[in-house]
Structures are given as C-alpha cells and as structure tokens.
C-alpha cells in the first residue's frame, strides 16, 4: 500500500512541476503581450503550438471598438503579405502537376511582358526580378479603390523601368507576387481566389480563411483601425483586387496552424518540393539571400526559422516556425499601429530558451 501511495505522490509531483512550468511560460507570454494590446483599444490574437498542438492561444483588446466587442481567438484578420506563402505553395503545386517550372521565363505565360525572356518564376518567388514594386509608385492611390482584373493590374506596372537586372539584387517586391497570381490563373484556368479556396482552404479544412472583402458580411471579422494623434479611426477602404496574390487573404490563428501543420505533413506538396522552397538562394554574384519561396529564412538563438509578416491597411500579422523544435508562433493585430513582428519573435526566443532548459 505504501509503495502504491508513493508512486501516486511521485506522479502528482512531476505533474505539478510540469503544470508549474506551463503556467510560468503562459504568464511570461502574457507579460510580453499585455502592455502592447490594451483592453479598451484594438487588439490581437496569438497562438503558440508545439508538435502541431496549441499550447497557448489568447485574444487581447477589442475586435470592434465602436460596439465594444471583446476580441476572441476565433476572430478573422487580414493577413497581408503572409498571403505570399499561399501564392508560393500554389505555384509549386502547379509545378508538381507539370504545368509550369520555376525556371520558366515569364514570357512563356505573358508573351508581351518587357524583358520577360530574362525574368523567371524563380526571380519572382525570391524577390530578385528587378521589376518595379507597384506599391511604391506614386500613382498607386489612383487605383487603390478600383476593382481591377489581374491582367489590368499587371498592365499598371509592366512598362515601368526595372530597378536592376534579374538576379542582381534582392528587393522585396509585391509586383512579383501579383505576377505569380496572374500566372496561377493563366495556367490553372481558375481565378486566384477560386484556386486558393478550392485547392488549399477547402482541402485543409480552413473554414474561416478567405479572400478579403470590405463589402461582404464576414462572421467574426476583427475590424481594422489606424491610430491618429486624436485617437483611433476606421481603416482605409481599398479594393482587394489591388493587393491580390501579394496580400489579399484573411485567416484565423487556428486556421494558420492547420496551414503550418499541412506543410509539415506534406499535404499539399512533397518533401522534395519543400526542400526547394525552404532554401537560401544566391544572387548572380553568389551572395546568399535570406529568402526562399514565400518565406524569410532567418535565425533565432542560433536556431533556423521560417517566417513572414504582413501589413495592410488596418492590420498587421507575423508567423514564425522553428523546424528543429516544431514550434509555430503566429500573431495578428487589428490596428496597423501595433506590429506583432517583434513580440512574435520575442515569444519564439522565450519558447526556445525554455525548451533548451528542459534538454
């Protein structure tokens, strides 16, 4: 009997230690987030997963200030440039189907594109094409609210002079990812929106992810805000045909975990293709860049990370995956005044330090 009681107490002891560690970690993450997201202002949602399962999921602040609605973990956010992950994966899905190759020149799909014989899909994916980024053009606000077909959007910037020759430099470029979306449409016969919805969102059960809209009623939408010197204002309305395949998607923290898990489990692309995506590529000079296909490839605490952020009127987002520990951290904000980039990385650092102590 005493031996049985001893085993029970030992189990309870170890359980209490694990519970204490979890509570300490939770409180440390809370302490990072609470000063940024005030309870009466725009808020955020943050998720941390380990081995494909969430270990932290919390919401802060308001999803709608006017109606005094408290943020919940199920709120839907615009994810901005995190959209590029989906565009890159879609391109690689089409390559696996034999419908294109990353070394194809874009003139194969858009014959009249200037210097299209020298610019490849690879250049577009890695931001090394030299094409002018249309979001930096002064005339961008002339079309910001205009609904445009993808072909029209491409024609808006295609005759702009290039910033450099393909492969000479790395320069983050939204135009390149717009071209990728247009190529997806030309090759697949679907609109970009339908392709992502059908072959990614529906397949993975990402039921709360979609193409952005300011007109449609979207359940659990977190409303976007800007901060001015006199207070918060509603976000600027735009046509989402403009960010298109470079930044027009919406999602939730839980759906983004499904997305990350699907990549880990090769549900959309093969392991061989993943090796192509998550690789540091070289410029013509041989210099390495820290960008693969749709992900930035960095390090935290000496550990490799795959990450990407997003920023669009009224919203900011950030996601970081640590392959060595199978840790994923994703954060959303419904005010472009509160960037989740640094705090998401800080959470990753905290998690890595905690895991190192346990080994």
Describe this structure in words.
The chain has about 350 residues and is an alpha+beta fold. The protein has one domain: 3-Layer(aba) Sandwich (Beta-lactamase). About 35% of the residues lie in helices and about 20% in strands. It has ten helices and 13 strands. The chain has helices spanning about 1-35, 85-95, 120-125, 150-155, 175-190, 190-205, 245, 255-265, 270-275, 340-359, and strands at about 45-50, 55-60, 60-65, 70, 75-80, 210, 225-230, 230-235, 250, 295-300, 305-310, 315-320, 325-335. The strands form four sheets. It has a six-stranded antiparallel β-sheet, sandwiched between helices. β7 and β8 form a beta hairpin. α4 (about 150-155) runs antiparallel to α5. The radius of gyration is 22 Å and the shape is globular. The relative contact order is 0.17. Mean pLDDT is about 95; it is low at about 1-20. It comes from Halomarinibacterium sedimenti. This is Beta-lactamase family protein.
Keywords:
single chain, 359 residues, alpha+beta, Beta-lactamase, 6-stranded antiparallel sheet, 13 strands, 36% helix, disordered N terminus, Beta-lactamase family protein, Beta-lactam-related, AmpC-like
Residue share in helix: 25-40%
The major sheet is characterized as: 6 strands, antiparallel
Examine the secondary-structure arrangement and name the CATH architecture: 3-Layer(aba) Sandwich
Would you identify the CATH H-level superfamily?
DD-peptidase/beta-lactamase superfamily
SSE string, helices as H and strands as E? HEEEEEHHHHHEEEHEHHEEEEH
Structural class: alpha+beta
Q: Cα-atom Rg, whole angstroms?
A: 22 Å
**Low-pLDDT sequence parts:** 1-20
Dominant shape = globular
CATH class: Alpha Beta
Question: DSSP strand (E) fraction?
Answer: 15-25%
Estimate nothing, just give the exact number of structural domains.
1
Distance between the termini: 34 Å
Annotation field: number of helices: 10
**And the CATH topology?**
Beta-lactamase
